[in-house]
Amino acid sequence: MCPTVDVFEKRIAALEGGVAAVAASSGQSAQFMTIAALAGAGDNIVSTTNLYGGTYNQFKVLLPRLGITT
């Protein structure tokens, strides 16, 4: 773990009154970490078709490989 990131996460958690925080290097990685934590094989995600291209690709290519339908 990067010490700078560790300090950043702790400070964000304190600012928000939370127990912990997770920092991500991009919106795509933050989105994937969230979906991976909340959804699993056999789950279905309902979304609009008006998505950012990277999100659309993640929903149509990566998530089905994990057994998550969209």
Automatic annotation (TrEMBL):
Pfam families: Cys_Met_Meta_PP. GO terms for molecular function: cysteine synthase activity; lyase activity; O-acetylhomoserine aminocarboxypropyltransferase activity; pyridoxal phosphate binding. One of its GO terms (cellular component) is cytoplasm. One of its GO terms (biological process) is transsulfuration. Its cofactor is pyridoxal 5'-phosphate. The keyword Transferase applies. SUPFAM superfamilies: PLP-dependent transferases. The keyword Lyase applies. Belongs to the trans-sulfuration enzymes family. PANTHER family: HOMOCYSTEINE/CYSTEINE SYNTHASE, HOMOCYSTEINE_CYSTEINE SYNTHASE. This is O-acetylhomoserine (Thiol)-lyase. It comes from Blastomyces silverae.
